[in-house]
Amino acid sequence: MNYQKIYDSIINNAKSLESIRIIEKKQKLNYFERHHIIPRCLGGSDEKENLVLLTAKEHYMCHRLLCEVYPGVRGLSFAMWNMINGRTTQGRYLVSSRIYERIKLAHAKVVSQRLSGVPKTAEQRLKMSESAKGRIVSEETKKLLSEINRDKKLSSDTIAKISKTLRGKPKSEQCKHNMRKPKPVVTCPHCGVSGGKNTMAQWHFDKCKSIPGNEHIHDIRTHTIHECPKCGIRSTSLSNLTRYHFDNCGKKVDLRKCPHCSKEMDVRNAKKYHFDNCKFKLGT
Length: 284
Hints:
Blueprint: H1 3-16, H2 18-26, E1 33-36, E2 51-54, H3 56-69, H4 74-85, H5 97-115, H6 122-132, H7 139-151, H8 156-166, H9 173-180, E3 185-187, E4 194-196, H10 197-203, H11 219-222, E5 226-227, E6 234-235, H12 238-245, E7 255-257, E8 264-266, H13 267-274, H14 279-282
Antiparallel strand pairs: 1-2, 3-4, 5-6, 7-8
Helix pairs in contact: 1-3, 3-4, 4-5
């Protein structure tokens, strides 16, 4: 398969629609992402001639094609990996398990090549030497470490040996003092409940359910059914009703017209599902 030819056809099609896409982006009728035609890791610049507006689907496909055209290029591998794992305006790019495995293996190979054989500075060597001074390592421990470095997968016998070597290890007086020291107990000023500091910070004080308006924080535990007083819609999550429904209940839906088929629909659904995938635009 000629990946370069497919890549060029997507870029040429986007270039021919550039003026329309600029207008759609300014009027927020559609979502686009800026793409470097020649990637910066291959010597591309930030000049206007090297930039093009692509839809989210086109942008993802272009980066996949570039990885096929230039396999092993570190910058392209990182860009592809960030696309399916990083956060974008539209969220993560969802891919199949087979494609994810291919991208993961390519990314792991690039990272391994980058880290293997990296020379350490004199300062790093000195710190490693200072931290290891005075450390007594028994022959049994050396044998265990060599086994770990050899196969990386520990057997049950190896785990038992490691546990045995750590058992009875002398602890410093400061360590013993910290272990004997009782955990701090705090009391919520709103409901009077006492408990551990971390647990109380998660469920009490400013988040205490006795404070009006904090009921949604405890929805996961109580599974309370909440109901809209206007239309009667019910949900177990008060936070979702407060965020999406209460203020918008009874409001007129914001309708937008598709520039390709003139169909009217809710603006959020239109941007997410229709504009890029309109059959009149795709010619199907």
